[in-house]
C-alpha cells in the first residue's frame, strides 16, 4: 500500500507542479546566489534517436517490474520503490506526450531538475541505503 500511495502522490504532485510552471502565470523567481526557479524544457535522448514513446513506455514497464520484484525481496524499501516508480512514470508520461520534460529548479552548480527528479534521486539513495543496511554494512 505504501508503495502505491507514494507512487501516486509523486506522480500527481510532479504533474501538477509542471502544469503550473508551463502555464506561464509565474515569472522566474531568483534564489539569490543559488540560481532560480524557471521553466526549462529538456529534450530527451530518445527524441534524438530512433527510440519513440512506445519503446520508452515498454522500457519503463520492464524497469517497473524489476523494481516490484526488488520490493518484494526487500519489504523495507516500499517507499523508496514508490518514489522511483512515481518519478519515472511522471517523466515518461510527460516526455511521451510532449517530447520533453519540464524542469524548473535551476541551480548554478547543477543541471535543471523537477519534483520527479528529486523523487528518483531520493528513491535510489534510499534503496541503496536499505541494501547496505540489509547486508550489515550500515547499522539499523
Automatic annotation (TrEMBL):
GO terms for molecular function: aspartic-type endopeptidase activity. The keyword Cell membrane applies. One of its GO terms (cellular component) is membrane. Keywords: Aspartyl protease, Cell membrane, Hydrolase, Membrane, Protease, Transmembrane, Transmembrane helix. Pfam families: Peptidase_A8. GO terms for biological process: proteolysis. The chain crosses the membrane at residues 58-89, 109-132. PANTHER family: LIPOPROTEIN SIGNAL PEPTIDASE (PTHR33695:SF1). Belongs to the peptidase A8 family. This is Uncharacterized protein.
Amino acid at each position: 500500500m505504501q508503495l502505491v500511495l507514494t507512487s501516486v502522490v509523486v506522480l500527481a504532485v510532479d504533474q501538477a507542479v509542471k502544469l503550473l510552471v508551463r502555464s506561464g502565470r509565474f515569472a522566474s523567481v531568483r534564489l539569490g546566489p543559488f540560481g532560480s526557479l524557471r521553466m526549462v524544457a529538456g529534450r530527451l535522448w530518445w527524441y534524438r534517436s530512433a527510440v519513440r514513446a512506445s519503446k520508452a513506455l515498454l522500457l519503463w514497464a520492464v524497469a517497473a517490474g524489476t523494481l516490484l520484484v526488488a520490493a518484494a525481496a526487500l519489504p523495507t524499501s516500499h517507499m523508496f520503490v514508490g518514489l522511483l516508480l512515481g518519478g519515472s512514470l511522471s517523466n515518461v508520461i510527460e516526455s511521451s506526450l510532449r517530447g520533453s520534460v519540464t524542469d524548473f529548479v535551476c541551480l548554478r552548480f547543477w543541471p535543471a531538475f523537477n519534483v520527479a527528479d528529486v523523487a528518483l534521486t531520493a528513491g535510489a539513495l534510499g534503496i541503496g541505503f536499505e541494501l547496505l543496511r540489509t547486508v550489515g554494512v550500515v547499522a539499523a
